[in-house]
Amino acid sequence: MDKRISKTNRRKWLAILLAPIALFLAGCDIKLNDLTPSTLKANPSRTYAITAQVSVKNSAVIDGSVRPEIIIDGQAQEMTRVPGSDSLYEYDYVMPPGRNQAAYYILVRYQRKTASSTVSKEIPTEVKTITVENRYSVELEVNRAPVGTRVAILGRGFTRDDKVMVGGAPAVTQAESSTSLAFYVPSLPEGRNYDVTVLGLNGELSAGSLRIDASSIRVSPGSLSLRSGQRGILAFSIPTEAPPGGLAVTVTTDVPDSVIMPEVIIPAGQRSTSVRVEGGDPGSGNLYVELGGYSDVVIPITVSN
Length: 305
Hints:
The protein has one helix and 30 strands. By secondary structure, the protein is mainly beta. Strand 18 and strand 19 (203-213) form a beta hairpin. 20% of the residues are buried. It holds the Pfam family TIG. This is IPT/TIG domain-containing protein.
């Protein structure tokens, strides 16, 4: 009795030891690669292609005997060969309503010639889980623009809580729909590429890279000559409409005691504004006009008695 038990145990251990060898030998016949990404983008039909590459490596494999299958949702489904390819196979899986994940593995069955007969073989992949994303960014409408330009982002799953960041700087954002966002290029130095990201309650999405091109701000008149207490007008204009919230223009001077003027803000939706400049103490110098993404402007100013 003990001898019979011992023989049975030996057979079990032998089977366990030989299983990896059998799998290795099967791998020498067939090379099986699952090419399906782990994350897929949602689509209206809820249909997703699961793709595998099956390459015959051994001439002992009988022609026409290779049959790839996918085991998914507890059922075996035949995979079909991709037209024009000898090694690519796919299966169109329809994700059930209310689900965004599915687990599966691929099994290839085939027949192999031996010295005395034909044997049936099979080789599986590991179990894999695919996840369907309902929120993603596809692309920017354009990849370069000057400051103040309205740029759209196409994607899926956008909400009113989403905010666009350009190079880490917040941009005025407008939620148009679940598939489209728009933002205004913020005032940043021109001639550089900036990463564009979408921040929301559901995490962060990359929308690509945007290059900010140089633009120009016009200031008129090109110089000022005032008497102490006299007022003049400076007009500021830009080529595109200012974004929601307006566009603040920085004006500094090297003769602060000679110049009295308010902050300069181009109102939202407008392309120009004007401010009053009053002469203070006598002196001469410059007004320096700066706006991120626009060429700097220097306005000479003279204040006399």
